[in-house]
From TrEMBL:
Its EC number is 2.3.1.180. It is an enzyme of class 2 (transferase). The gene is fabH. It comes from the Bacteria. The last Arg residue of the ACP-binding site is essential for the weak association between ACP/AcpP and FabH. Residues 119-199 form the Beta-ketoacyl-[acyl-carrier-protein] synthase III N-terminal domain. It comes from Streptomyces doebereineriae. CDD domains: KAS_III (cd00830). Homodimer. Its main location: cytoplasm. GO terms for molecular function: beta-ketoacyl-acyl-carrier-protein synthase III activity. Pfam families: ACP_syn_III (PF08545), ACP_syn_III_C (PF08541). This is Beta-ketoacyl-[acyl-carrier-protein] synthase III. Residues 254-340 form the Beta-ketoacyl-[acyl-carrier-protein] synthase III C-terminal domain.
Length: 358
């Protein structure tokens, strides 16, 4: 079932690769603990921790939109790269500021990058890996010399606060990377990709209203259709199989063995999912990078936030081989292999929003 005849398998060309040269994460200040959620939902800290591994998450304040988080992460990533300008800005998000226009042009302008090409990529929780492939392709195709890629989401704006199954999982945040042109044998070179999708699973993760499907139907949208919905059990099964299969496909393409992977950085969906994927791949638990306990599932921000956490804590070191893998609505999935670059010290995302997590 998982032998896909189609999809993207991408090798970096030897002569010109995209190289990771800047990284940052940013979290809004407001910490929401499981205990706080338990006060308004029929749930408990113990249930949430056992089923998901999540202990707390951040929520954007009222009036704070995805672009506000994206700008903060983007600014820090540019500073980390020591760059003031880039040729292109890509924002990947499921919670754009508006359904029209895209969020990236606004973010670019607010970062002083007006004039840069700017567009959004939508692939739900796989957004960062899809965005990375798009950014790397702009560079390898010699269309751009540098790209700022920002994954940002404010799920608190689309999840029904009374839906105990989903309200406990998602958090808000932003993570960003800067890529520049370089060589495939350099540290930081963004390597092989595997990307795929299966739209027959559209209904497993969706916001039913707000798009042309609902607007082309007579009558106003039902209030519940404006909220994010997810069929948790089925999504769980797909997430495990797809992330593991995509990670394996990337390793095969790169002609690498699992034991050559120093760190697996999956989309931070749920700790049980991540442990099962690592287990399935035969990777020891200590090579699994996870920060889901402190941020929850932050959608397109989750991989760059996990990378920023790990880099800030020196868990990932220069020269080590890092495998990213993600799964999300669509259904979509994707993986990418890279070697870790030498970066200037990365600020811990938990310190960025102004409030230290408890
Ligand atoms: N607190 C307490 N009980 C809860 C609850 C909560 N927050 N949410 C659901 N429950 C209840 C259900 O109502 C159900 O009760 P019932 O047996 O009386 O009907 C019971 O717990 C089991 O529900 P179920 O949905 O079968 O639980 P689960 O073990 O599948 O866990 C998820 C639910 C959502 C945590 C799990 O399915 C999951 O993690 N899915 C993947 C989600 C994810 O990571 N998505 C992102 C992918 S990109």
């Amino acid at each position: 079932m998982l032998d896909q005849p189609f999809g993207i398998s991408m090798r970096p060309p030897a002569e010109r690769a995209a190289v990771l040269c800047g990284l940052a994460g940013w979290l809004p200040p407001r910490v929401v603990t499981n205990d706080e959620l338990s006060q308004r939902l029929d749930t408990t800290d113990a249930w949430i921790r056992t089923r998901t591994g999540i202990g707390r998450r951040r929520f954007a304040d009222p009036g704070q939109a995805t672009s506000d988080l994206a700008v903060e992460a983007g600014r820090l990533a540019l500073a980390s790269a020591g760059q003031e300008h880039v040729d292109a800005v890509i924002v990947t998000t499921t919670t754009p500021d508006r359904s029209c226009p895209a969020t990236a042009p606004l973010v670019a302008s607010r970062l002083g990058l007006a004039g840069a090409a700017a567009f959004d990529v939508g692939a739900v929780c796989t957004g960062f890996v899809y965005g990375l492939a798009a950014a790397a392709s702009l560079i390898t195709a010699q269309v751009a010399d540098s790209v700022l890629l920002i994954g940002a989401d404010t799920y608190s704006t689309i999840v029904d606060p009374h839906d105990r199954t989903n309200a406990i999982i998602f958090g808000d945040g932003a993570g960003a990377v800067v890529l520049r042109a370089g060589h495939a044998d350099e540290r930081g070179a963004v390597g092989h990709f595997d990307l795929g999708s299966d739209g027959t699973g559209e209904e497993l993760i969706m916001v039913a209203a707000g798009g042309s499907r609902q607007r082309s139907t007579p009558g106003p949208a039902e209030p519940q259709d404006r909220h994010f919905t997810m069929r948790g059990k089925e999504v769980y099964r797909h997430a495990v199989t797809r992330m593991a299969a995509s990670a394996r496909a990337t390793l095969t393409l790169a002609d690498r063995k699992v034991d050559e992977v120093d760190h697996l950085v999956p989309h931070q969906a749920n700790l049980r999912i991540l442990r099962t994927v690592a287990d399935d791949l035969g990777l020891p638990a200590e090579r699994l990078v996870t920060n889901v306990e402190s941020v929850g599932n932050t959608g397109a921000a989750s991989i760059p936030l996990a990378l920023a956490d790990a880099a800030a804590e020196h868990t990932i070191r220069p020269g080590e081989r890092v495998l990213l893998t993600a799964f999300g609505g669509g259904l979509t999935w994707g993986s990418c292999l890279l070697t870790w670059p030498t970066l200037p010290p990365i600020a811990h995302p938990h310190d960025s929003g102004g409030t230290q997590a408890p």
